[in-house]
Protein: CaiF/GrlA family transcriptional regulator
Amino acid sequence: MNRGQIADAFGISERSATFQLTYLSRKKEQICCELRKVKRAGVPVESYEVRVTEVSPEAGVRKVSEKQREAVKTIQRGRVGNADGDVRELTRNIWNSLQRGRKA
Structure:
């Protein structure tokens, strides 16, 4: 397949399709592919075609330790912004009153 075929199949620009070809050719541990240069008549630049022979999605999955999982949970529970406690409480009260009004 070449970038024109990828662009047509997925409805994206040929430039975006070039990025997809690059991704496919560089993920050696996940995607087995054959890459070849093609010289077209009347065009001074060579282009690449890729033939995907095998895909192994398990190869790209990395194990996440429990410590890393807990760190993500802690980060996600943290507060957002730099408001002090009084402003956060006021904002929380306003939000809750709006939610109560919406349910009524």
Observations:
- The radius of gyration is 25 Å.
